[in-house]
Amino acid sequence: MPRAAARCSRPVWPGAPVPLGARFRAGPDGRSGTNFALWAGGAEGVELCLFDDEGEGGGERRVRLTELTHEIWHGFVPGVMPGRRYGYRVHGRWDPWTGARWNPAKLLLDPYARAVDGEFLLPGEVYGHVRDWPDQRVADTVRDERDSAPYVPKGVVVHDDDDWADDRRPKTPWADSVIYELHVRGFTRLHPGVPRELRGTFAGLAHPAAVEHLVRLGVTAVELLPVHQFAHEDHLLRRGLRNHWGYNSVGYFAPHAGYAATGTRGEQVGEFKRMVRALHAAGIEVILDVVYNHTAEAGELGPTLSLKGIDNRGYYRLQSDPRRYADYTGCGNTLHVVQPQVLRLITDSLRYWVTEMGVDGFRFDLAAALARSMHDVDMLSPFLAVIAQDPVLRRVKLIAEPWDIGSGGYRVGAFPPLWTEWNDRYRDAVRDFWRHALPDVREMGYRLSGSSDLYAWGGRRPYASVNFVTAHDGFTLRDLVSYAHKHNEANGEGNRDGTDDNRSWNCGTEGETDDERIRALRRRQLRNLLTTLLLSAGVPMLVAGDELGRSQRGNNNAYCQDNEIGWVDWSLLDDPGWRALCDLTARLIRLRHAHPVLRRRAFFSGRAHAEDGLRDLAWFTPRGTEMTERDWYAPAATLGMYLSGRDIPGRNRRGERVVDDSFLAVLHAGDRPVGFALPGPPWARHYEVLVDTDREDQSAAPREKHHAGAVVTVPPRTALLLKAL
Question: Could you say which DSSP state residue 241 is in?
Fold first, then answer.
């Protein structure tokens, strides 16, 4: 049983069952205190555990919550002020064969805790079962009676009276968005312009030196890898590693304490808000990568940290054998989103981050797992239905990772119109094209023009496609052109982890090389990939450091590399070659912002709207002729895409017709030069070269002009962007 603890002498008033969590406020007699409310549907009793500061004598004081309303245990405790640490002990049956895993020896984190103090270290005491039981086949059925309180973090009472009156959200339209995926710690950990004490923190990301780089690039939103409080997996701790990415959530309301420079007794909440304000002031939205599909408690052999000990059957999907967990995530468990209390937890959390923490949207990890009804992925599922009608959530940016690992879990293109999606078919096509591995150019045609084959239904638009070539999961852009195979030995898993389907090309040599010919080819390939991404219809997503030539040394699964492998190397800007790549990225983004034809709000029609036969989109062969059906199916490594600025649908805010320049993009992935005949009228009479990826330094490149009909020599593996004149 738990170690002896003092009973709290404070009075406990009935309080209220809503809102859930710990809320500091004035009590019935005007005295300040905190209302505690916890949903624990099948529990037989709940004890609130209050922890004093060490300077006050330390120790745990327990308060039994006797009020029960609609399966919510609640009580108001006068005198409990912000900064007080707390947790719960929940009483009930221990019967793993039916899914019941109550164990009052385990101190549990409040699912609604708004701040967390301490770190999960995962010794045997934090497991609800006897972890080292001789017969591991039944170990999860033997209850561990040791007290876990000394080994687990505590929730912190937080006072929140911020109304955000001085904040101005950028509210960037989807079509105008450029997303930059970054890791709070990894982005600033080595940044020379950020004070050392702020590096790797929310305050570090808010520092002017960090914000200036984002502004210079021109991105409109940062997509932050998980910032919810998370735990490190036991197998990583045993190897001396840590979970760097954070896809192991345990607190859906708490900013991760490890990213706080100012303190972990509630200070992290204010620090996160100041970060959001700083980014908003720079015109940059904040999107959170959120992990509501599973928690850090893993399967039946995982630790008991929160939900498992509060009501295991109420929070998790269990198999027909209730000892076991349904696992659609590959992480040991799956939240049972069909259950009302789980759906409430998720939506309460989402609304909290929007209304009280100021964020502008969410990217949902393994979103297909959230869209499952009882078993199958269902686009009419309770989760998607609730989001669609919620007056707060339906107005923010919603991005789905549209798959999970379960049967029928791959659902790219299937999410309803409110959602955008990570488009992995775009990623695969662009990678394959530039390594010259596509049999023809049909797939590239769809991906460059907004993936209408996936998204032109139900009122969806091109910006339903979040286009990316790289993401946190996989090779960096530089590694994509430097390695043919993954090199994950540093993860300690025998190089078995991480995907083998990289669709990469090392340009002839594996890894880093002193061969300047190969180095130049790799830099040109990076320019090709970035140019393609930022000229494609849809919403482009960059990964932090790709614009600098960042490498993870061939590691395509750096989830546990909280070191130089997983951090952005800012010293790369001292190299003229990598600085030129960063300059090109910024220039391409400026072009995108300046030209509405590059960020269309509607799909191309491909039809002529005037007598001269000019269409809003046309495709050309190197002969300068429009592509026929036969051309689309023929082996090819070259594609010309003409974008007309004369036929942009829609009007601006004043109701005026939108007119822009027209452009011709030429993408050539072959290993030999090709002559490309520039189309004549009605497409253009002259052309001006704006981007030529054969050139190392685009800023010094002369703007060559060519007559229509001229044959331009396109070097091997080169992209051109020409403005029609």
Answer: -
